[in-house]
């Protein structure tokens, strides 16, 4: 409501700025100031310069004569200026000018504006009743509290799994690390850290993640999450049989609706050797193509990201290398030249990119 | 508040449309009432634009991420100053600042233009309104800073860390005050062409505007150069980068305009040339704004990724530059040429100045646009860098700089070159002595250093000579001389200061180029590095945490026990590193320390420069600004000053003017 009142008042004021001068009485406005005033000032200047000794007497004479000539010329040019006339044309033009202000402004604003969208200053969003906050806002509130008080163990414990759900894996890793630092080792924290690390590295069970899961099992030997991922680690190392047997145990020991039981069954189905060897072969044959397709898709998305945000040295390096790995040398050369252009030819970053490409075995023009 | 600001911006556009049409028609029909619309429309338009700008500032200050522009360029953890300056750190916000300044100048003309002829004032404000309307439309349709998102993100994407600096608070507003200040000169020029005559009031008005715009542009460029110097970490102060050239071209043309406007005001000569320069200067300002703003510099292709914006920009450039030049071609012959002068005279010297400056501006223009044209036409990317400008621009300005001290000493209309040379004998002798001393320096003395520093000394001594000669020193007694010196018109002090400032800048540039040294070493705690005869002891690295960045800061101790800190920062939101050079100022010289990469064995690469007299480069700019300010304060330049001077006697007149 306040907005509409303010908008109406502003429109009124703007229209008035046009209306007022147009509706003045036609006669009685101030006379146009005379050009001769300017010349008079110049004459006074010459006098002053003479009195200060800056201008010699004969030069001053010349200057006076010249200004005098200009005054004469200006007098000739004086034209009788007409005052405003009324007339229908004038009135129509004036009305059109005044009316155009609300028409143009309200018309254009109707197309561009969002009058019903309230303001959302961050501080107000952070302090209002939490039940009206969106999940993202709640996380941000918790984050700002943790930034002020980074030793709040409970905050990290609560936030860490939420980060995993939001797929913010980097944040999840650091949140679990903080919780471990403050609250000491526990099976839940260690397994959580392991899980976050696995997702962070795109599904690979890294050494660090494996260590975290093993630590969790020391605390709680039966912990399904840790057992599941450790089996996965075996599978990734090629010990498919051992992995399968561990998943089998896990499936047997867990209740029907446990999510880890389902996950284990799924994995078991994928690894199970047996009658459908043909299928497995087919899958194996298909996998490299799938993988290549997936990699190509990832490279394409990196490429388009760099088009939007080209000032990213690391990104260009990754792109060049990816194309080289895929055997697309022309694309790599193209990416290199685009990268150098985007980073600014001759800059340090561009040079680093060229050096990098040269180190990958590309021919780089000096 | 945001939507009110948005609405105010739309309203300002509507008002600018009316302002560009009604007064123009009024001036043609000689209708006082229609011409009268111009002033209130201009002032109200400024108030509305200011309201819009305040609304955007408050959105940035409150981190309102429901505004797209705030979300893209701010972060809740930024310090308040950078939140606010971030408002013009983005394309959209900077264009809003641009029109704010434009309407501000329009409002100034409207408010203080009481002694302008009615038709001239109406035409000037109409042109100003037209520029405004075009830019409002550009902002609203392609770069709207008030676009919203719903639901609002919870955190912003942060501003480019390089821009998170006090420099952003000062540099763009100053630069825009300069760029846009020339729009007033442009409007006056176009108005004169529309009217088909240039009267005396025209020259009186154009000169102070040129002076003011030039002052801000000088400050803006100097500030930008210093910012690049300390922030980019290469220790350079001028890179002949297209972005820098974009501001330098209007400066060169504006300097020419400043000088030709003097001739025009004093002698009614060079009228048509001055008018053309006014058009060219603003055209270069527009070009500068857009070169920087459109992204065309990164790549012609980057420019083409957002065709709506790019096409609009090209349209605006064509409309204003092409349109005004066409108008000039059609109407210039109807203007009367002014007074005559002898080639050797103050006017002649100023024409020489103009020739050199416009040629220099053309050189920079070619060097800046050629790569873009090549890329657009041939598709090949070439870069025109410092070697091109060193070979073309510098030989061009050296004769100009040499001629500078002569100009102010020549008389109007018909000058005496021999007499001026005699009066400059002392300055010339002094410069010669300085040059010889430099040449005889045991270390690093060279012909280049001697010539460069001699030139700087010649300019500075020449500027002082100008003042002393005008005061009659040493022909008259000391007390009379002093009295006369203090009684000189301020514009003469302004001239001398500005010319002195150029000398300072030249001195700084030559000193750094000739005597600067550079050392690189891998240092561990306790190591010492030699920098220009001084010793820098490394006192170790320590981590630091800023509001929205983390940093590694190295401390260095100098011989006298004072410390220099240099750091490398990392801004996690943008995943960008920046460097904060450590700078120690010793009178006019500086030690500049930059941290490089850490080595595996625990050391760190340290890059240190000795920059003798480097601050003179920017102090010279400040002195030039001061010269312009002093000149502006000369009441003869202030239009509309009451003619109280007639009441004064000659004796008191010398005290206050």
What is the element layout, followed by pairings?
The complex is a heterodimer of chains A (366) and B (657).
Chain A: H1 2-22, H2 35-52, H3 57-77, H4 88-112, H5 122-127, H6 135-148, H7 153-165, H8 169-183, H9 187-200, H10 207-219, H11 224-237, H12 240-253, H13 259-271, H14 277-308, H15 313-325, H16 329-343, H17 348-359
Chain B: H1 2-29, H2 32-35, H3 38-61, H4 68-73, H5 80-85, H6 91-112, H7 118-142, H8 166-195, H9 200-231, H10 242-267, H11 271-293, H12 300-305, H13 307-331, H14 346-377, H15 386-403, H16 417-423, H17 425-440, H18 447-471, H19 478-487, H20 490-515, E1 517-523, E2 528-531, E3 534-545, E4 550-557, E5 563-571, E6 576-580, E7 582-586, E8 589-598, E9 604-611, H21 615-633, H22 650-656
Antiparallel strand pairs in B: 1-9, 2-3, 3-4, 4-5, 5-6, 7-8, 8-9
Helix pairs in contact in B: 1-3, 1-7, 3-6, 6-7, 6-8, 7-8, 7-13, 8-9, 8-11, 9-10, 9-21, 10-11, 10-14, 11-13, 14-15, 17-18, 18-19, 18-20, 20-21
Domain Cytochrome c-type biogenesis protein H TPR (chain A): 144-259
GO biological process, one term (chain A): cytochrome complex assembly
Signal peptide (chain A): 1-26
Folded structure, characterized:
The complex is a heterodimer of chains A (about 375) and B (about 650). Chain A is mainly α and about 375 residues long. Among the domains of chain A are: about 140 residues, Serine Threonine Protein Phosphatase 5, Tetratricopeptide repeat, CATH 1.25.40.10; about 80 residues, Alpha Horseshoe (Serine Threonine Protein Phosphatase 5, Tetratricopeptide repeat), CATH 1.25.40. In chain A, about 75% of the residues lie in helices and about 0% in strands. Chain A contains 17 helices and no strands. Chain A starts with a helix and ends in a 7-residue tail after the last helix. About 5% of the residues of chain A have low confidence. Chain B is α+β, with helices and mostly antiparallel strands and about 650 residues long. Chain B folds into four domains: about 160 residues, no CATH class; about 230 residues, no CATH class; about 130 residues, no CATH class; about 100 residues. In chain B, about 65% of the residues lie in helices and about 10% in strands. In chain B, the strands form two sheets. A five-stranded antiparallel β-sheet of chain B has the order 2-3-4-5-6, with no helix packed on it. A four-stranded antiparallel β-sheet of chain B has the order 1-9-8-7. In chain B, a hairpin with a 2-residue loop joins β2 and β3. Chain B is globular and about 85 Å long. The chains are: A mainly alpha (about 375), B alpha+beta (about 650). Chain A: One of its GO terms (biological process) is cytochrome complex assembly. Chain A: Its main location: other. Chain A: It is found in: Cell envelope.
């Amino acid at each position: 409501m306040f907005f509409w009142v303010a908008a109406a008042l502003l429109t009124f004021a703007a229209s008035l700025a046009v209306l007022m001068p147009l509706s003045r009485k036609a006669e009685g406005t101030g006379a146009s100031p005379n050009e001769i005033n300017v010349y008079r000032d110049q004459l006074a200047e010459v006098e002053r310069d003479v009195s200060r000794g800056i201008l010699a007497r004969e030069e001053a004479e010349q200057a006076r004569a010249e200004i005098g000539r200009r005054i004469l010329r200006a007098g000739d040019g004086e034209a009788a200026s007409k005052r405003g006339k009324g007339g229908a044309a004038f009135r129509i033009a004036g009305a059109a000018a005044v009316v155009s202000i609300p028409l143009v402004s309200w018309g254009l604003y109707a197309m561009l504006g969002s009058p019903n969208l309230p303001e959302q200053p961050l501080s107000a969003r952070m302090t209002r009743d939490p039940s009206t906050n969106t999940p993202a806002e709640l996380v941000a509130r918790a984050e700002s509290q943790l930034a002020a008080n980074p030793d709040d163990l409970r905050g990290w414990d609560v936030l860490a799994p939420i980060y995993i759900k939001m797929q913010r894996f980097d944040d999840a890793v650091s949140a679990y690390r903080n919780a471990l630092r403050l609250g000491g080792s526990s099976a839940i924290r260690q397994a959580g850290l392991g899980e976050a690390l696995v997702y962070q590295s795109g599904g690979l069970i890294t050494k660090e993640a494996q260590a975290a899961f093993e630590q969790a099992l020391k605390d709680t030997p039966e912990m399904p999450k840790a057992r599941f991922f450790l089996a996965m680690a075996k599978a990734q190392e090629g010990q498919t049989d051992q992995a399968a047997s561990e998943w089998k145990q896990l499936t047997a020991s867990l209740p029907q609706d446990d999510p880890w039981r389902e996950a284990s069954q799924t994995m078991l189905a994928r690894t199970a050797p047996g009658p459908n060897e043909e299928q497995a072969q087919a899958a194996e044959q298909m996998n490299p193509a799938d993988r290549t397709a997936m990699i190509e898709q990832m490279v394409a998305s990196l490429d388009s990201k760099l088009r939007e945000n080209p000032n990213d040295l690391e990104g260009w390096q990754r792109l060049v290398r990816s194309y080289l790995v895929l055997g697309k040398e022309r694309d790599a050369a193209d990416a290199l030249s685009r990268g150098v252009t985007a980073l600014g030819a001759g800059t340090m970053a561009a040079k680093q990119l060229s050096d990098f490409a040269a180190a990958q075995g590309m021919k780089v023009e000096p | 508040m945001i939507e009110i600001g948005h609405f105010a911006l739309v309203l300002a556009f509507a008002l600018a449309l009316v302002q560009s049409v009604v007064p123009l028609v009024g001036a043609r029909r000689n209708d006082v009432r229609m011409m009268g619309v111009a002033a209130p429309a201009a002032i109200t338009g400024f108030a509305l634009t200011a309201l819009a700008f305040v609304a955007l500032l408050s959105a940035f200050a409150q981190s309102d991420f429901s505004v797209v522009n705030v979300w893209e360029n701010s972060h809740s953890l930024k310090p308040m100053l950078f939140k606010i300056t971030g408002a013009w750190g983005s394309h959209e916000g900077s264009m809003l600042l641009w029109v704010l300044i434009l309407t501000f100048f329009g409002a100034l003309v409207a408010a203080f233009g009481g002694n302008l002829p009615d038709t001239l004032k109406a035409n000037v404000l109409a042109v100003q309104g037209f520029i405004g309307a075009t830019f409002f439309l550009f902002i609203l349709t392609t770069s709207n800073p008030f676009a919203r998102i719903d639901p609002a993100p919870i955190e912003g994407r942060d501003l480019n860390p390089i821009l998170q600096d006090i420099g952003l608070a000062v540099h763009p507003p100053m630069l825009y005050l300069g760029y846009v200040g020339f729009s007033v000169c442009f409007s006056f020029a176009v108005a004169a062409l529309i009217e088909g005559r240039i009267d005396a009031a025209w020259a009186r008005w154009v000169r102070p505007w040129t002076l003011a715009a030039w002052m801000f542009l000088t400050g803006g460029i100097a500030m930008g150069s210093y910012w690049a110097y300390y922030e980019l970490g290469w220790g350079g102060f001028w890179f002949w980068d297209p972005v820098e050239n974009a501001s330098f071209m209007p400066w060169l043309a504006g300097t020419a305009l400043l000088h030709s406007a003097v001739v025009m005001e004093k002698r009614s000569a060079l009228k048509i040339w001055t008018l053309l320069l006014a058009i060219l200067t603003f055209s270069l300002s527009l070009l500068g704004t857009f070169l920087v703003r459109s992204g065309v510099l990164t790549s012609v292709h980057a420019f083409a990724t957002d065709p709506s914006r790019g096409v609009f920009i090209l349209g605006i450039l064509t409309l204003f530059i092409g349109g005004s030049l066409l108008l000039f071609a059609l109407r210039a012959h109807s203007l009367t040429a002014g007074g005559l002068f002898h080639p050797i005279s103050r006017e002649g010297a100023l024409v020489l100045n103009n020739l050199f400056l416009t040629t220099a501006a053309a050189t920079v223009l070619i060097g800046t646009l050629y790569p873009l044209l090549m890329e657009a036409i041939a598709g090949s990317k070439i870069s025109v860098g410092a070697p091109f400008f060193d070979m073309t621009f510098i030989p061009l300005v050296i004769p100009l700089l040499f001629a500078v001290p002569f100009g102010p000493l020549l008389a109007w209309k018909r000058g005496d070159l021999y007499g001026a040379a005699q009066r400059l004998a002392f300055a010339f002798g002094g410069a010669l002595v300085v040059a010889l001393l430099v040449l005889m320096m045991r270390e690093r003395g060279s012909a280049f250093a001697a010539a460069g520093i001699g030139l700087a000394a010649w300019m500075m001594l020449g500027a002082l000579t100008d003042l002393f000669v005008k005061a009659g020193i040493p022909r008259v007694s000391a007390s009379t001389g002093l009295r006369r010196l203090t009684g000189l018109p301020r514009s003469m002090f302004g001239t001398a200061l500005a010319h002195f400032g150029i000398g300072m800048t030249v001195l700084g540039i030559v000193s750094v180029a000739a005597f600067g040294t550079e050392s690189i070493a891998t240092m561990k705690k306790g190591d010492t590095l030699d920098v220009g005869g001084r010793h820098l002891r490394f006192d170790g690295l320590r981590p630091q945490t800023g509001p929205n960045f983390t940093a590694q800061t190295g401390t260095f101790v100098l011989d006298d026990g004072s410390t220099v800190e240099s750091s490398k920062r990392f801004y996690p939101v943008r995943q960008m590193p920046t460097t904060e050079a450590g700078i120690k100022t010793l009178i006019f010289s500086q030690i500049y320390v930059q941290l490089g990469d850490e080595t595996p064995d625990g050391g760190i690469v340290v890059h240190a420069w000795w920059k003798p007299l480097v601050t003179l480069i920017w102090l010279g700019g400040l002195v030039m600004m001061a010269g312009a300010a002093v000149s502006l304060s000369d009441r003869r330049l202030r239009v509309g000053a009451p003619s109280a001077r007639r009441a004064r006697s000659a004796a008191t007149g010398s005290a206050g003017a």
